[in-house]
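Please produce the structure of this protein holding magnesium ion.
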Amino acid sequence: MSYKGPRGTYDVYPGGREPHERAGLWAFVEDRARGILGLHNYQEIRTPIFEEIELFARTAGEASDIVVQKEMFTFRDKGGREMALRPEGTPGAVRAYIEHNLFKLAQPTKLFYVGPMFRQERQQKGRYRQHTQIGVEALGTSDPLVDVEAISLLYSIHQAVGVKEEVVYLNNIGDMETRRAYVPELRAYLQRHAADLDPDSVARMETNPLRTFDSKHEGTQAVLAEAPNIGAYLSRAASEHLAAVREGLDALGVPYELDERLVRGLDYYTMTVFEAKSGALGAQDTVGAGGRYNALIPDLGGPDLGGIGFGSGVERMLLAAASHEQEPSLDVFFVTLAPEARVPAMRLAGALRADGVSCDLDYGGRGAKGQFKQADRSGASFAAIVGEDEISRGTVKVRDMASGEEREVGASDGATELLRAIGA
Ligand code: ATP
Ligand code: MG
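Below is the modeled complex.
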């Protein structure tokens, strides 16, 4: 019997080939992102990776890929309740914000999360059934400057991890007033060209015609190229919001392009939407995306407050970035030349680690030659050699692995001399 990881998943393991299979790069991205988020006063939220299915279905909306393409991994618990692995981070965060009355604190509440998301999709490069997002939710305000902060944060995190050829696209898809004016016009236009649309877009034409802009179908895109633009229908509030966001982005020097055809994959977005793409990726070129959702908090039973957020895929960030990998390093490898030397070596290793020096020793029962080879392979800066002679003299021999130079140091009163010999 042999087993393989489930379709659409990957492992992170020593020597992993793809950037997202390498642990060092994950630590690098998370460190950079957490640093930047902390500097902007965002606090971490951790919610369960499964929730009631209804939470996700309701928030994503009946026209979303998550619902239309049946992307959710679902199951019934023993009580017969329908549950789903989370396809995205926003619903859980907003649910928790309401459940724990965070809206009663001084607003906004600025949250970030890092964690796995699950979507049953066809596997391709940059598209997995379990992927990881770093995301933020700034809840409890509709101030356009918080939109500026969110977009600038997304851009800064990408730049800090080295995402190449990045372009941020911005649009405003309006408030209810805008939708009331625009959506019937768009729907009527699409109905006139229904014969040239793909079946999903025909269905969405009725439920949420804005979502047809997201279609990758050529015929649909050709129809949409001539469709009425939302920009001409924006309400006064929406135009002013967009102008304020643009002014803020210009002032902060965040490069962006206005794209009046940009809509996002989730039905809950209102007003600001944005997407960061990288020219270094293939077909799956959106690294991170987000938008404002002014109806979501009240829709989930909370007060009538707005919010904005984004989610950015760590796998795609790593695929789009120049590698910043640091080779794993080890300070000291203990070479033991007699069985009685193993426990004393282990004790000394413990003393070194207590001083922040990384150590390892042989657990493979190798002979002296094999252990030196292992010391070399592990990339250790020093080998610490303990044999019968060293034990009887209460010493350790230290070899500088680069120069081959050796010296014997006392070890009977602990690791002090050893620490000095390796310059720690
Ligand atoms: P796409 O258009 O590529 O399907 P999406 O609109 O479904 O993306 P969002 O729901 O906005 O994506 O998710 C935010 C980010 O999460 C994406 O920009 C991407 O980096 C990442 N992401 C989404 N789905 C996947 C996936 N299946 N595999 C890897 N990363 C993903
Ligand atoms: Mg998708």
